[in-house]
Amino acid sequence: xxxPATEGDLPSxxxxxxxxxxxxxxxxxxxxxxxxxxxxxxxxETAISNxxxxxxxxxxxxEVIGHYILAAEVVPESMFKHPQRFGHVHQIEVDPRFxxxxxxxxxxxxxxxxAASLGLSRVILDVWAFNAAARELFDSTGFxxxxxxxxxxxxxxxVTE
Length: 161
Prior knowledge:
Blueprint: E1 2-4, H1 10-27, H2 37-48, E2 53-60, E3 63-75, E4 84-94, H3 103-117, E5 123-125, H4 132-140
Parallel strand pairs: 4-5
Antiparallel strand pairs: 1-2, 2-3, 3-4
């Protein structure tokens, strides 16, 4: 079952949020900070009251087994771009004990449905190159590559010819 998160669900979602953050901090320690459960709960308490943010959870009985955070974002018109309203999945995670059972796909489909009900034009998300399992999930649910970022690290030894 997928439903809106409540205040009572926030500690479980926060545990997941910390787990995701540690994955990112391990991969990119110069970019991502580490934080604890209390910080995550505090962040979620603010987010859950924001009308442009949707936090939904997947449950098995009364246990929270996954979640996503979807933000409705607005980009004003500029000389270069048309105005846009889209959904941005800032976070999605399934408890490791429940992965590869279709929970992630159901969460993604739910996020797409919520975004459509809000009249948003598209759903975007970010995924790191190292996260092959997440990329596979997103590919399998119809997400397609939309641009990319390249980086040149200035703190690395320079290659000379």
